[in-house]
């Protein structure tokens, strides 16, 4: 019996934390896409503190790759990114059937009225203006995931 439990724990990534529980007690996984290391750190720490599992990517191309490989529950996407910007990464994630359903929160320094149309057209579900406010991000995450 003890051995069986050990095998299960090893084979299931969440088994050690929340074994055999359903719903919100299983940590939701969030992909943070940010090229600014400080913002990435702030968001990661805050979301981990809120019991989310966080992965991160430093540019849009890596974000698309990670989204397809890991299928996170939600993506926080900086718009201004090297290699591929956040709008193009969002378009690609929303164009792939495997990842089209994943909610995306855009983070942008260009919080002008006209931009909202551009974000929505690209497929962003919500957007927040920078500077990054971790509390606002968590509120938006919870709302989009239907938590709280
Ligand atoms: Mn940036």
What do these coordinates show?
This protein has a single domain (26-145), classed as Rossmann fold, CATH 3.40.50.2300. It has helices at 2-11, 37-49, 60-70, 86-95, 113-122, 134-145, and strands at 29-33, 53-57, 74-78, 104-108, 126-129. It is globular. With 148 residues, the chain is α/β, with parallel strands linked by helices. The longest helix is centred in the first third of the chain and has 13 residues, at 37-49.
Share of residues in helices: 40-55%
List the ions, cofactors and other small molecules found in this model. manganese (II) ion
Total number of strands? 5
What proportion strand? Answer: 15-25%
Multimer state: single chain
Unreliable parts: 1-23
The structure class reads alpha/beta
Q: Kindly state the mean pLDDT as a whole number?
A: 85
Helix-strand pattern: HEHEHEHEHEH
* CATH top level label: Alpha Beta
So, CATH architecture? 3-Layer(aba) Sandwich
Total number of distinct structural domains: 1
The main sheet comes to: 5 strands, parallel
Question: From the alpha-carbon coordinates, what is the Rg to the nearest angstrom?
Answer: 16 Å
- CATH superfamily label: Response regulator
Q: N-to-C terminal Cα separation, in Å?
A: 38 Å
As laid out across the biggest beta sheet, the strand order is: 2-1-3-4-5
CATH topology: Rossmann fold
Q: Indicate the overall shape.
A: globular
Q: Provide a count of the helices.
A: 6
